[in-house]
């Protein structure tokens, strides 16, 4: 394990700013503050790391440590108050809102804990939605194949209200991969599911990662899930306190 704030860690992790062009993700001196009345609350402080292309990384930490905030910043869902985030050579902190939306549609997939399916669209239509937002009319065969790969070929024309929580999350996984994103972010993907269903979702997530070669970054509070990833970033009170590589405890890696 690398304890990030120790002096020796500098020799083990190169500075994020020098690796941005060759890494999937490079975060450098990232900070995030939010106003609270007349004061500022520090959510993240001076965080730096890089993630090589194709790596699986779990982000852990207690509630309020900044895990989901960090994930959202890397996905371009919010803008940091300090530092830079370089995604495949592009500093997304310099992009305006429309540029960020285009970049996200082309490069990033995101799986939410709460699924965020459109209730008036069927499973198939939900999966096709990212392509429609990109103005791409072709993709029905791919959407059907993705739904089949997650075991939902019999649910193509069902609406979210007709699906279980596990089935809705599987639709969300298929939707996240429909655009073949180079990077996939998952925020507590099993947080709203029972343990058995959660294990199935993680198995599918790993399977899709292997099939598509995406870089995968997930937030979790579950140590058993985090140990299935070959690398764990640990946050506490807005600081990156540990960066550990290990042999994952799963056959999915």
Please characterize this protein's 3D structure:
It is a single chain. Strand 5 and strand 6 form a beta hairpin. The protein has a seven-stranded mixed beta sheet, sandwiched between helices. The protein has a four-stranded antiparallel beta sheet with strand order 3-2-5-6. It has helices at 16-19, 67-74, 97-107, 123-133, 140-149, 165-177, 195-212, 223-226, and strands spanning 2-3, 25-36, 39-51, 56-60, 82-87, 90-91, 108-111, 183-187, 215-219, 231-236, 239-245. The protein has 253 residues and is an alpha/beta fold. The longest helix is centred in the C-terminal third of the chain and has 18 residues, at 195-212. Helices cover 31% and strands 26% of the residues. The chain has a domain at 54-78 and 96-245: Rossmann fold (3-Layer(aba) Sandwich), CATH 3.40.50.
- Looking at the overall shape, the CATH architecture of the domain at 54-78 and 96-245 is 3-Layer(aba) Sandwich
Arithmetic mean pLDDT:
86
Separate helix tally: 8
Q: What is the CATH C-level name of the domain at 54-78 and 96-245?
A: Alpha Beta
Percent of residues in β-strands: 25-35%
Instruction: Walk across the major sheet and give the strand order.
Output: 1-11-10-4-9-8-7
CATH superfamily of the domain at 54-78 and 96-245: P-loop containing nucleotide triphosphate hydrolases
Helix content: 25-40%
The fold-level CATH name of the domain at 54-78 and 96-245 is: Rossmann fold
Mind describing the biggest β-sheet?
Answer: 7 strands, mixed
